[in-house]
Amino acid sequence: MKALHIAATGMKAQELNVEVISNNVANMRTTGFKRQRADFQDLLYQNLRRMGTDTSAAGTIVPTGVQIGSGVKTAATARIMSQGNLQQTDKELDVAIRGEGFFQIQLPDGTTAYTRDGSFERDATGTLVTVDGYSVLPGIVIPQDARDVTISTEGAVQAIVGGAAQQLGQIQIARFVNKSGLEAIGDNLFLETEASGAAQVGNPDQDGYGNLQQGFLEMANVEAVSEIADLIAAQRAYEMNSRVIKAADDMYSTTTNIR
């Protein structure tokens, strides 16, 4: 009886589904987090009677046939890259992207990573860095005596230095043909992959790139009500598959008890 194995694949699939949902819920307050969704596909089929085969010399054919499925498998955990809500922080180095694009971050090994988390700080040299100390590309240095730092919607960084306004640099952002193809590595960072395509770098608020909002942070795009509804649906699907296993076991028991 294949029902045991088929239902087992269903339970494993829903177990993974719950894990994806739990990660979404856990990151509800994570800056720039993008929720994931588990996608499933059916497994191979066994053809007991193939549709379209001849049933007589007169040319009649089987209209539907008999196929028995093998269960379900996880096809992907797609990342939903929709815009999260912007939350005002009034911190001058907090920056949110409204629209398309990612901040470029240089990792210690020289690799360029990408993030939607714009909670930036200054290190000991005045360089604009992430909360983990990674440099924001292209490198921008804010002098120690700088005050009233402003970041325009186009990414221009200015400050009052020595009593005069001074241009300190230009923040550029990157976008991708397939944002969902980026590889998440934790710490709110993504890496470019062959699936995402090469990064296209440009200035904010130009040529389809999003604009920057100083004093704001983009929150996670997780909706609590939707996640709870998905969790309940996953739980019910898991329960139904467990009942199939119980029913198959009862049928096995009935068969073995026949005298």
UniProtKB/TrEMBL annotation:
Compartments reported by the entry: Bacterial flagellum basal body
Pfam families, per database record: Flg_bb_rod (PF00460), Flg_bbr_C (PF06429), LlgE_F_G_D1 (PF22692)
Protein biosynthesis as UniProt keyword: no
Cited InterPro entries: Flag_bb_rod_N (IPR001444), Flagellar_basal_body_rod_CS (IPR019776), Flagellar_FlgE/F/G (IPR020013), Flg_bb/hook_C_dom (IPR010930), FlgE/F/G-like (IPR037925), FlgG_G_neg (IPR012834), LlgE_F_G-like_D1 (IPR053967)
This protein's UniProt keywords: Bacterial flagellum, Cell projection, Cilium, Flagellum
Principal location class: other
Keyword Signal: no
One cellular component (GO) term of this entry: bacterial-type flagellum basal body, distal rod
Entry's Gene Ontology BP terms: bacterial-type flagellum-dependent swarming motility
Summary of subunit composition and partner proteins: The basal body constitutes a major portion of the flagellar organelle and consists of four rings (L,P,S, and M) mounted on a central rod. The rod consists of about 26 subunits of FlgG in the distal portion, and FlgB, FlgC and FlgF are thought to build up the proximal portion of the rod with about 6 subunits each.
Family membership noted in the UniProt record: Belongs to the flagella basal body rod proteins family.
Listed PANTHER family: FLAGELLAR BASAL-BODY ROD PROTEIN FLGG, FLAGELLAR PROTEIN
Protein name, per record: Flagellar basal-body rod protein FlgG
Lineage: Bacteria, Pseudomonadati, Pseudomonadota, Alphaproteobacteria, Hyphomicrobiales
